[in-house]
Amino acid sequence: MSTHLHTLYDGPIIDAHQHFWDLGANHYPWLAPDTLVPHRYGDYSRIKHDYLPADYLRDAAGHDVIGSVYVEAEWTPDDPLGETAYVSQLAATTGRPNAMVAQAWLDHDNIQSLLAGQARFALVRSVRHKPGDPDASGRTLMSNTRWRDGYSQLARHGLHFDLQAPWRQLAEAARLAGDFPDTLLIVNHAGVPGDRSSATLAGWSSALEALANCPNVVVKVSGLGQAGKPWSVEANEPVLHTLNRTFGADRLMFGSNFPVDELFGSLDMLIGGFKQLVSGWPPSEQRAFFHGTAARVYRPSGLTEPKTRNAS
């Protein structure tokens, strides 16, 4: 039985999942003024404002966030390289982000040239293409031959794949991971557990077990909000317990999902809440969760120096 005392993590943090957007300069269809698309958080109107590195650094000021990973923000899909160029310029001028998950629709005709183009950018480590709703047979794009052909090209370009899909699609994701063992599959938002009912958590936990058997799968613990409910440590305790039991801290990494999760409170509240959630883990596991796994997976560049702390 573990005898570790509960201690709040006080070391360096790499935020493995965040976004920036300048709504006046660039086009994100879902963030247009008169648009509301179906979203698992419900009405997201309050995040339709510019969010840039200066805003993020202000919001994170109470914590030692030394770097971050930008995740594609559903920029207009006719210009995916434009988003990458824009984000690369942000990084060059502000020091954030320090790695990037780029947009790449894997079933497009030009996918080979697009992946080559994305891989040429120094920041890009991974790509994302949400596989969408299942068809009548219960399958998503993850089972589509053309999409999988695109997926098969990732390894040769040295790219990972970031998967955002609800937990009911994780069995399909496990097959994908097994079929392409040379590609690291990064599960976004903890596999989107949804509500916290016992039935949902049991189904989600079972789905995670199959994924955990694939050594080329890691999980981002991000986006754990629930529509119409406040974010709380209590609601997420069973989620963190299951993730650590199933994957272990070396395959888990913290992500803020800011500014989207601003719908539930401040970044300070969110990071502080996660520090509470893992406070019973051994110090080495806390460091893996907040720093080590993301450093290994995303190889962020240009990190700021961690704050100097007294030895204890």
TrEMBL record:
Transmembrane parts of this sequence: none
Pfam name, any one: Amidohydro_2
Domain Amidohydrolase-related residues, every copy: 14-299
GO molecular function, one term: hydrolase activity
InterPro entries: Amidohydro-rel, Metal_Hydrolase, Metallo-dep_Lactonases
Similarity comment: family membership: Belongs to the metallo-dependent hydrolases superfamily.
Record protein name field: Amidohydrolase-related domain-containing protein
Lineage: Bacteria, Pseudomonadati, Pseudomonadota, Betaproteobacteria, Burkholderiales
